[in-house]
Specification:
With 292 residues, the protein is mainly β. 8% of the residues lie in helices and 41% in strands. The chain contains 2 helices and 20 strands. It has helices at residues 2-17, 258-265; strands at residues 22-28, 38-45, 52-57, 65-67, 71-74, 83-91, 94-102, 111-114, 124-132, 139-145, 153-159, 162-167, 170-175, 184-191, 196-201, 204-205, 209-210, 222-225, 245-252, 282-285. The strands form 4 sheets. It has a 7-stranded antiparallel beta sheet, with no helix packed on it. Strands 9, 14, 15, 16, 17 and 19 form a 6-stranded antiparallel beta sheet that branches. A hairpin with a 7-residue loop joins strand 3 and strand 4. The protein is elongated.
Length: 292
Protein backbone atom coordinates (compact mmCIF):
# COMPACT_ATOMS: atom_id res chain seq x y z
CA UNK A 1 0.00 0.00 0.00
CA UNK A 2 2.89 2.32 0.71
CA UNK A 3 4.26 1.94 -2.81
CA UNK A 4 0.88 2.30 -4.42
CA UNK A 5 0.23 5.46 -2.46
CA UNK A 6 3.60 6.84 -3.52
CA UNK A 7 2.76 6.22 -7.18
CA UNK A 8 -0.44 8.15 -6.77
CA UNK A 9 1.48 11.04 -5.28
CA UNK A 10 3.94 11.05 -8.19
CA UNK A 11 1.13 10.88 -10.71
CA UNK A 12 -0.65 13.75 -9.02
CA UNK A 13 2.52 15.81 -9.07
CA UNK A 14 3.02 15.13 -12.77
CA UNK A 15 -0.56 16.11 -13.53
CA UNK A 16 -0.12 19.25 -11.52
CA UNK A 17 2.85 20.33 -13.60
CA UNK A 18 1.12 19.72 -16.94
CA UNK A 19 0.36 23.08 -18.55
CA UNK A 20 -2.54 23.71 -20.86
CA UNK A 21 -1.58 25.07 -24.27
CA UNK A 22 -2.45 28.77 -24.34
CA UNK A 23 -1.80 31.73 -26.59
CA UNK A 24 -1.83 35.44 -25.93
CA UNK A 25 -1.07 38.52 -28.03
CA UNK A 26 0.89 41.51 -26.83
CA UNK A 27 2.36 44.54 -28.59
CA UNK A 28 5.83 45.99 -28.82
CA UNK A 29 5.93 48.85 -28.00
CA UNK A 30 3.13 48.54 -25.44
CA UNK A 31 1.60 51.90 -26.44
CA UNK A 32 1.21 52.15 -30.26
CA UNK A 33 2.32 55.41 -31.84
CA UNK A 34 1.04 56.64 -35.20
CA UNK A 35 3.56 56.44 -38.08
CA UNK A 36 5.95 54.24 -36.10
CA UNK A 37 6.62 50.51 -36.38
CA UNK A 38 4.57 48.12 -34.27
CA UNK A 39 4.82 44.38 -33.63
CA UNK A 40 1.99 42.07 -32.60
CA UNK A 41 3.55 39.10 -30.81
CA UNK A 42 1.70 35.79 -30.36
CA UNK A 43 3.15 34.03 -27.31
CA UNK A 44 2.37 30.32 -26.69
CA UNK A 45 2.70 28.56 -23.33
CA UNK A 46 2.27 24.89 -22.50
CA UNK A 47 3.70 23.55 -25.78
CA UNK A 48 7.48 23.69 -26.33
CA UNK A 49 7.25 22.12 -29.80
CA UNK A 50 7.29 23.87 -33.20
CA UNK A 51 4.31 26.06 -33.96
CA UNK A 52 2.52 27.37 -37.04
CA UNK A 53 0.90 30.78 -36.64
CA UNK A 54 -2.11 31.98 -38.60
CA UNK A 55 -2.72 35.73 -38.36
CA UNK A 56 -6.15 37.09 -39.32
CA UNK A 57 -7.93 40.41 -38.95
CA UNK A 58 -11.66 40.83 -38.46
CA UNK A 59 -13.44 41.77 -41.72
CA UNK A 60 -10.34 40.99 -43.79
CA UNK A 61 -11.22 38.44 -46.52
CA UNK A 62 -7.78 36.77 -46.53
CA UNK A 63 -5.28 35.80 -43.82
CA UNK A 64 -2.59 38.36 -43.09
CA UNK A 65 0.20 35.87 -42.49
CA UNK A 66 0.74 32.11 -42.07
CA UNK A 67 3.90 30.27 -41.09
CA UNK A 68 6.37 29.77 -38.25
CA UNK A 69 6.63 33.50 -37.47
CA UNK A 70 4.98 34.44 -34.19
CA UNK A 71 5.33 38.17 -34.92
CA UNK A 72 3.10 40.26 -37.17
CA UNK A 73 5.10 43.33 -38.16
CA UNK A 74 3.42 46.67 -39.02
CA UNK A 75 6.17 48.94 -40.42
CA UNK A 76 4.17 52.20 -40.10
CA UNK A 77 1.19 51.98 -37.77
CA UNK A 78 -1.82 54.14 -38.70
CA UNK A 79 -5.63 54.29 -38.49
CA UNK A 80 -6.05 51.61 -41.18
CA UNK A 81 -4.51 49.03 -38.83
CA UNK A 82 -7.12 49.50 -36.11
CA UNK A 83 -9.31 46.45 -35.45
CA UNK A 84 -9.42 42.97 -33.93
CA UNK A 85 -6.64 40.50 -34.73
CA UNK A 86 -6.65 36.73 -34.20
CA UNK A 87 -3.63 34.45 -33.83
CA UNK A 88 -4.17 30.69 -34.16
CA UNK A 89 -1.14 28.70 -33.00
CA UNK A 90 -1.09 25.07 -34.20
CA UNK A 91 1.14 22.08 -33.39
CA UNK A 92 0.71 18.29 -33.07
CA UNK A 93 -0.40 18.91 -29.49
CA UNK A 94 -3.36 21.02 -30.64
CA UNK A 95 -4.31 24.63 -31.25
CA UNK A 96 -4.59 27.75 -29.16
CA UNK A 97 -6.34 30.94 -30.21
CA UNK A 98 -5.79 34.50 -29.01
CA UNK A 99 -7.46 37.76 -30.02
CA UNK A 100 -6.35 41.35 -29.61
CA UNK A 101 -8.12 44.62 -30.41
CA UNK A 102 -5.67 47.20 -31.64
CA UNK A 103 -6.63 50.72 -30.69
CA UNK A 104 -5.00 54.08 -30.12
CA UNK A 105 -5.82 56.62 -27.44
CA UNK A 106 -5.40 59.56 -29.75
CA UNK A 107 -5.78 60.45 -33.40
CA UNK A 108 -4.63 63.32 -35.56
CA UNK A 109 -7.51 62.81 -38.00
CA UNK A 110 -10.64 61.42 -36.32
CA UNK A 111 -13.41 63.95 -35.69
CA UNK A 112 -17.04 64.81 -36.36
CA UNK A 113 -17.70 67.71 -38.71
CA UNK A 114 -20.91 69.65 -38.13
CA UNK A 115 -22.29 70.38 -41.59
CA UNK A 116 -24.79 73.09 -40.61
CA UNK A 117 -24.21 76.31 -42.56
CA UNK A 118 -24.27 79.55 -40.57
CA UNK A 119 -25.28 82.50 -42.73
CA UNK A 120 -24.92 85.41 -40.28
CA UNK A 121 -22.17 86.44 -37.83
CA UNK A 122 -22.95 85.74 -34.18
CA UNK A 123 -23.40 88.37 -31.50
CA UNK A 124 -24.69 85.74 -29.09
CA UNK A 125 -24.32 81.99 -28.81
CA UNK A 126 -24.91 79.02 -26.55
CA UNK A 127 -23.26 75.61 -26.86
CA UNK A 128 -24.31 72.57 -24.81
CA UNK A 129 -22.98 69.02 -24.91
CA UNK A 130 -22.39 65.90 -22.84
CA UNK A 131 -19.05 64.08 -22.74
CA UNK A 132 -17.80 60.85 -21.17
CA UNK A 133 -14.10 59.97 -21.10
CA UNK A 134 -11.29 58.69 -18.91
CA UNK A 135 -8.71 61.07 -20.40
CA UNK A 136 -6.62 63.13 -18.01
CA UNK A 137 -4.59 64.95 -20.69
CA UNK A 138 -5.87 68.08 -22.52
CA UNK A 139 -8.56 67.61 -25.17
CA UNK A 140 -10.91 69.59 -27.37
CA UNK A 141 -14.68 69.16 -27.30
CA UNK A 142 -16.07 71.86 -29.60
CA UNK A 143 -14.09 73.90 -32.12
CA UNK A 144 -15.54 76.71 -34.28
CA UNK A 145 -13.01 78.23 -36.70
CA UNK A 146 -13.09 80.76 -39.51
CA UNK A 147 -10.51 81.60 -42.16
CA UNK A 148 -9.39 84.59 -40.09
CA UNK A 149 -9.55 83.06 -36.60
CA UNK A 150 -9.01 79.41 -35.67
CA UNK A 151 -10.32 79.89 -32.12
CA UNK A 152 -13.50 81.86 -32.77
CA UNK A 153 -15.20 79.52 -30.31
CA UNK A 154 -13.37 76.75 -28.50
CA UNK A 155 -14.61 74.58 -25.66
CA UNK A 156 -11.53 72.82 -24.33
CA UNK A 157 -10.63 70.81 -21.25
CA UNK A 158 -6.95 71.33 -20.31
CA UNK A 159 -7.11 69.00 -17.29
CA UNK A 160 -9.61 67.24 -15.00
CA UNK A 161 -11.60 69.80 -13.06
CA UNK A 162 -11.17 72.67 -15.51
CA UNK A 163 -12.89 73.91 -18.68
CA UNK A 164 -11.54 76.55 -21.04
CA UNK A 165 -13.66 78.77 -23.28
CA UNK A 166 -12.17 80.84 -26.10
CA UNK A 167 -14.04 83.56 -27.96
CA UNK A 168 -12.04 85.33 -30.67
CA UNK A 169 -8.87 83.66 -29.31
CA UNK A 170 -9.34 85.22 -25.85
CA UNK A 171 -9.57 82.71 -23.01
CA UNK A 172 -11.20 82.25 -19.66
CA UNK A 173 -11.43 79.23 -17.34
CA UNK A 174 -14.03 77.55 -15.14
CA UNK A 175 -13.08 75.25 -12.28
CA UNK A 176 -15.41 72.29 -11.68
CA UNK A 177 -15.35 69.16 -9.49
CA UNK A 178 -13.08 66.36 -10.72
CA UNK A 179 -15.34 63.49 -11.79
CA UNK A 180 -13.30 60.89 -13.66
CA UNK A 181 -15.39 57.99 -14.94
CA UNK A 182 -18.62 60.01 -14.97
CA UNK A 183 -20.35 61.83 -17.80
CA UNK A 184 -20.31 65.63 -17.68
CA UNK A 185 -22.87 67.98 -19.19
CA UNK A 186 -21.81 71.57 -19.84
CA UNK A 187 -23.39 74.64 -21.40
CA UNK A 188 -21.63 77.91 -22.21
CA UNK A 189 -23.29 81.11 -23.38
CA UNK A 190 -21.86 84.45 -24.49
CA UNK A 191 -23.37 87.81 -25.47
CA UNK A 192 -21.46 90.52 -27.30
CA UNK A 193 -23.35 93.51 -25.90
CA UNK A 194 -22.22 92.85 -22.32
CA UNK A 195 -19.41 90.32 -22.79
CA UNK A 196 -21.06 88.15 -20.12
CA UNK A 197 -20.29 84.42 -20.26
CA UNK A 198 -22.58 81.92 -18.56
CA UNK A 199 -21.43 78.43 -17.63
CA UNK A 200 -23.44 75.47 -16.36
CA UNK A 201 -21.96 72.20 -15.10
CA UNK A 202 -24.34 69.22 -14.89
CA UNK A 203 -27.25 71.67 -14.88
CA UNK A 204 -25.89 73.91 -12.12
CA UNK A 205 -24.99 77.54 -12.94
CA UNK A 206 -21.46 78.73 -12.16
CA UNK A 207 -20.49 82.37 -11.39
CA UNK A 208 -20.64 84.40 -14.60
CA UNK A 209 -17.53 85.96 -16.12
CA UNK A 210 -16.74 88.52 -18.82
CA UNK A 211 -15.00 88.11 -22.19
CA UNK A 212 -14.72 89.98 -25.51
CA UNK A 213 -17.38 92.66 -25.05
CA UNK A 214 -18.39 94.05 -28.45
CA UNK A 215 -16.81 91.20 -30.42
CA UNK A 216 -18.56 89.47 -33.34
CA UNK A 217 -18.05 85.78 -34.14
CA UNK A 218 -17.46 85.42 -37.86
CA UNK A 219 -18.74 83.19 -40.66
CA UNK A 220 -18.40 80.97 -42.64
CA UNK A 221 -17.34 78.49 -40.02
CA UNK A 222 -15.76 75.07 -39.72
CA UNK A 223 -17.35 73.40 -36.68
CA UNK A 224 -15.77 70.20 -35.34
CA UNK A 225 -16.20 67.88 -32.39
CA UNK A 226 -13.18 66.10 -30.94
CA UNK A 227 -10.29 68.11 -32.43
CA UNK A 228 -8.80 71.57 -31.88
CA UNK A 229 -8.43 73.49 -35.14
CA UNK A 230 -5.22 75.47 -35.49
CA UNK A 231 -6.26 76.35 -39.03
CA UNK A 232 -9.57 76.37 -40.89
CA UNK A 233 -10.69 72.72 -40.88
CA UNK A 234 -7.28 71.36 -39.89
CA UNK A 235 -4.06 71.83 -37.97
CA UNK A 236 -4.91 69.07 -35.50
CA UNK A 237 -2.65 67.72 -32.75
CA UNK A 238 -3.15 64.13 -31.63
CA UNK A 239 -2.28 65.10 -28.05
CA UNK A 240 -5.34 67.38 -27.98
CA UNK A 241 -7.80 64.94 -29.57
CA UNK A 242 -10.84 63.67 -27.70
CA UNK A 243 -11.28 59.96 -27.00
CA UNK A 244 -14.61 58.95 -25.51
CA UNK A 245 -18.30 59.67 -26.02
CA UNK A 246 -19.93 62.97 -27.01
CA UNK A 247 -23.71 63.40 -27.20
CA UNK A 248 -26.56 65.89 -26.71
CA UNK A 249 -24.81 68.59 -28.78
CA UNK A 250 -26.75 71.83 -29.33
CA UNK A 251 -25.91 75.32 -30.53
CA UNK A 252 -28.10 78.43 -30.46
CA UNK A 253 -27.55 82.00 -31.66
CA UNK A 254 -29.12 83.26 -28.42
CA UNK A 255 -28.48 83.08 -24.71
CA UNK A 256 -30.05 80.45 -22.45
CA UNK A 257 -31.67 80.30 -19.02
CA UNK A 258 -30.96 77.80 -16.26
CA UNK A 259 -34.33 76.12 -16.80
CA UNK A 260 -33.59 75.78 -20.53
CA UNK A 261 -30.25 74.18 -19.68
CA UNK A 262 -32.09 71.47 -17.75
CA UNK A 263 -34.37 70.82 -20.72
CA UNK A 264 -31.34 70.57 -23.02
CA UNK A 265 -29.75 68.03 -20.63
CA UNK A 266 -32.71 65.76 -21.34
CA UNK A 267 -32.70 66.44 -25.10
CA UNK A 268 -35.93 68.42 -24.91
CA UNK A 269 -34.84 71.97 -25.77
CA UNK A 270 -37.49 74.68 -25.57
CA UNK A 271 -35.75 76.91 -28.15
CA UNK A 272 -35.08 75.96 -31.76
CA UNK A 273 -31.30 75.55 -32.11
CA UNK A 274 -29.06 76.27 -35.08
CA UNK A 275 -28.40 72.53 -34.87
CA UNK A 276 -29.40 69.96 -32.28
CA UNK A 277 -29.13 66.33 -31.31
CA UNK A 278 -32.53 65.18 -32.56
CA UNK A 279 -31.64 66.21 -36.13
CA UNK A 280 -27.87 66.52 -36.06
CA UNK A 281 -26.13 67.48 -39.36
CA UNK A 282 -22.77 65.76 -39.36
CA UNK A 283 -20.02 64.04 -41.33
CA UNK A 284 -17.71 61.44 -39.79
CA UNK A 285 -14.01 61.81 -40.59
CA UNK A 286 -11.58 59.05 -39.62
CA UNK A 287 -12.12 56.43 -36.95
CA UNK A 288 -15.34 57.59 -35.29
CA UNK A 289 -18.14 55.25 -34.18
CA UNK A 290 -21.80 56.22 -34.10
CA UNK A 291 -24.40 54.52 -31.91
CA UNK A 292 -27.96 55.66 -32.79
Amino acid sequence: MGRFWLCLLILAALLGTAETKRAQIWTQPAAPTVNHQLMLICEVTGDPGPQEFLWEKEESPVPLQKGPQSVLFLPSFNDTHLGTYTCTASSPQGTAVATYTLWINESQTAHVKVTAKLEQPLNNFTVCLRSFTDLTRPYSLFSYATEKQSNEILLFKPKPGQYELAVGNKLLFFTVPVSLGESEHVCVSWESSTGIVGFWFNGKPWPRKGLQKGYTVGVPASILLGQDQDSFGGGFEAKQSFVGEISSVYMWDTGISSSEVLWAMHNKPTQTPIFGWSDFPYKIVGDVYLKP
